[in-house]
Amino acid sequence: MTVHVRNIVNELDRLPDSRSFGRVVAVQGLLVQVGGIQTSVSVGDRVIIHARDGRRLPCEVVGFREGRALLLPFGGLGGVALGARAEVEDAEPAVYPTLEWQGRVINAMGEAVDDKGPLPAGEQAYPIRNAPPPAAMRQRVGGKLDVGIRAMNTFLTCCLGQRMGIFAGSGVGKSSVLSMLARYSGADVIVVGLIGERGREAREFIEDDLGPEGMARSVVVVATSDEAPLMRRQAAYMTLSVAEYFRDQGKNVLCLMDSVTRFAMAQREISLSAGEPPASKGYTPTVFAELPKLLERAGPGAPGQGSITGLFTVLVEGDDHNEPISDAVRGILDGHIVLERQIAERGRYPAINILRSVSRTMPGCNTEEQNQIVQLARRLLSTYEDMAELIRLGAYRKGSNPEVDEAIFYYPLLEQFLSQKKTERATLDDGYQQLVQVLSTAPGPDGEPVPPQQQPQQAAQQAPQQKQRPQRQQQGR
């Protein structure tokens, strides 16, 4: 059976036995009021409005007022007039993914937006707004996941089924980090959600950042910034629904979403249009209720299933890491990665602030030796940052504090270790080996770093000189 025929058969099987209809009675801004269907629908149901130009405009029920259903459209309201027919969809909004979706680009409605033809439809329906798995049914977080970024592999090790946030302001390098994760991670399948993305950047990310190698094992969900808030919000739900399908197939899925902040902004637009009062910086209570429902869908699956490792970017408004969305997301996830503008300005990429970032599952995944190595490196970085102002001003005198002297010596080596080109891949094992080499480096006679492999040779060259000094002193006497 061809893809086209199978899709038609599946659509016929989903047709309901009866239909309910209403009429548009008012339009205010993006809000459409429909009468006659208020007893046939509930919040979250789908309604199709038939516009004058023959266009079918999908809408979602967001509330009720004075005996009328309040709808928000998934597109523009052009052609919608008073008395326009509104048709209730009985089926729950769902998507029917298959393994053949890898390498495809879809929109928030689960439709192909690339030039590779229609999407094949699977047999099992995955609800768009699925509930997270019960906590008691989930497995524990698994072993380490190689993400291909040296700083994250060593200092912020990510485990299978973990959920991490990447917090940064605009232009600090979130998209670059995501592209490296998508291209170099060791996950079986990658599901990328570009939520509220700039239209021109979507294709650049797919062709340049992902590339053919990364795209071959990826599914990309795109909703650009010019689309309706319902489309942007549903793109986030669609991303998790597709990831859940691959998880149920036993795959270890890496779910990348850029960004959770734009999802929250879309939900804020929806809630304010429905008349919900704002709570904090314009964000409504529904925004903070929807965030955990979305983010909790990532994580380990039930026994026999795979896992969804989630990495969600958070656009920090005004570089304030305590703004409402950042604070709420940080409390839900299993760790946070902070990208700092000052680090990017001095040319170190990825601009990860190691001291402000944490992976909550990392200590349990590492060996004791690995934890000690990471703690030592963190201590050196922390000691240097505490004295950074005095060091830059020249107010610190060498020899005043041995710990500070040690931190000053190792700081440029650690900075070089944390730096990584966008085209460079770093493995888990290589990262720890390189960190051990950095911390094993010792200062030479001239204060320059001496790698571990050259230290025995240096000691052998210095030993005869030390033996000759007493003899020369005796001869002088």
Describe this structure in words.
This protein has 477 residues and is α/β, with parallel strands linked by helices. It folds into 3 domains: 17-91, Thrombin, subunit H (Beta Barrel), CATH 2.40.10; 95-363, Rossmann fold, CATH 3.40.50; 369-442, Substrate Binding Domain Of Dnak, Chain:A, Domain 2 (Up-down Bundle), CATH 1.20.1270.330. The protein contains 15 helices and 21 strands. The protein has helices at 3-13, 150-155, 174-184, 199-215, 229-248, 260-273, 285-295, 324-332, 341-345, 362-365, 368-386, 388-393, 402-418, 428-440, 455-476; strands at residues 20-28, 31-35, 46-50, 56-65, 68-73, 85-89, 94-95, 104-106, 126-127, 144-145, 158-159, 163-168, 189-197, 218-224, 252-258, 299-300, 307-315, 335-338, 358-359, 442-443, 449-450. Strands 8, 12, 13, 14, 15, 16, 17, 18 and 19 form a 9-stranded mixed beta sheet that branches. Strands 1-2-5-4-3-6 form a 6-stranded antiparallel beta barrel. Strands 7-9 form a two-stranded antiparallel sheet. The longest helix has 22 residues, at 455-476. It is elongated and about 90 Å long. Mean pLDDT is 88; it is low at 462-477.
